[in-house]
Task: inverse folding
């Protein structure tokens, strides 16, 4: 079954061809004009001080992007939170909590799994959350997850992620594309981190970097990979195994993330043979009926197949098996190719009181 979100992405990427595809993209392009006007008007209100910006009692580092999901923020949030924790800073994470009507969403559960000693607060009012983190949790620094468009809370440093497989300069404003705001918004960023550089040709990374240098001269740019660190399975806590055990194995894979194609490429890069692949919408809330359907799907896989999903999906399911086949979650870590030293120095300046001069 093809979910509507898949059909939408096929349309905006130009995979749906012919008169219907052209007409659909033209309609979406027209719909993006009023959206773009509204976004520009809102940013102008904050830029000119006509809408209030609240400063927390402690430094705030924002991790965000220009697009609607899929850039791999969670590993970067984990990297930054772990960086400050290892410096002895009492850090807390704040997020909106998209994809969850009650309790924690999948990203919060992943971060809790990987950083159990770092508190994570979720809610629509990040200004209030910031005060709570400082007053009740004695936080000394706040990491704002997915907060680039959240202009109400002042940041001492804004880090913006660009997915190399979906470069911003080749994208369009929503709904014609996945951009939340025009690319000019990158001017507010203190640093840019290009993710998933291992999933594109080297020339594609150079093109992104050249575009950033020409459009935003002097803006620090780091390049990274989302590298599988290990495989984890329910009921086997503390017994993670190396991801290369999937090499040459037939794998049935499924996920509900913003960029499912990136997960498939991760498995293929590990040497796995993807025998079947299912994509669900981002932050998908799995039901009992979905699990039953996945059981049926898994039962039709080759006899020696294993099943793999993302850690974001696994934390919502907590299943050890599907149809008697092991269900493994691929845990991902952020690995820098270039620019790590400069990036870490920027993080250190925040705690030293330097911050990002563009945020002042």
Result:
């Amino acid at each position: 079954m093809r979910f509507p979100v898949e059909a939408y992405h096929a349309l905006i990427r130009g995979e749906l061809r012919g008169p219907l595809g052209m007409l659909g993209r033209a309609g979406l392009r027209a719909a993006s004009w009023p959206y773009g006007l509204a976004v520009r008007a809102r940013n102008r209100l904050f830029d000119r001080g006509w809408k209030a910006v609240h400063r927390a009692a402690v430094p705030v580092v924002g991790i965000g992007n220009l697009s609607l999901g899929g850039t791999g923020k969670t590993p970067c949030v984990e990297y930054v939170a772990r960086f400050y924790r290892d410096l002895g800073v009492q850090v807390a994470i704040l997020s909106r909590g998209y994809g969850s009507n009650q309790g924690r969403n999948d990203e919060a559960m992943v971060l809790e799994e990987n950083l159990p000693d770092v508190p994570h607060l979720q809610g629509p009012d990040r200004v209030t959350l910031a005060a709570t983190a400082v007053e009740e949790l004695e936080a000394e620094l706040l990491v704002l997850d997915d907060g680039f468009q959240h202009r109400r809370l002042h940041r001492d440093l804004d880090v913006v992620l660009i997915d190399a497989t979906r470069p911003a300069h080749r994208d369009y404003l929503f709904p014609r594309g996945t951009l939340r705001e025009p690319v000019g918004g990158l001017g507010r960023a203190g640093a840019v981190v290009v993710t998933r550089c291992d999933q594109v040709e080297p020339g594609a990374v150079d093109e992104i970097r050249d575009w950033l240098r020409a459009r935003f001269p002097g803006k620090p740019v780091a390049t990274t990979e989302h590298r599988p660190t290990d495989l984890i399975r329910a009921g086997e806590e503390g017994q993670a195994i190396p991801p290369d055990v999937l090499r040459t194995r037939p794998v049935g894979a499924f996920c509900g993330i913003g960029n499912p194609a990136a997960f498939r490429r991760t498995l293929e890069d590990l040497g796995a043979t993807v025998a079947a692949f299912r994509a669900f919408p981002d932050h998908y809330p799995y039901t009992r009926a979905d699990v039953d359907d996945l059981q049926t799907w898994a039962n039709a896989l080759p006899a020696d197949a294993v099943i793999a999903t993302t850690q974001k999906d696994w934390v919502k399911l907590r299943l050890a098996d599907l149809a008697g086949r092991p269900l493994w979650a691929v845990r991902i870590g952020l690995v820098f190719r270039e620019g790590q030293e400069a990036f870490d120095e920027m993080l250190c300046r925040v705690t030293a009181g330097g911050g990002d001069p563009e945020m002042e």
Residues 60-220+339-359 form a domain with the Rossmann fold fold (CATH 3.40.50.300).
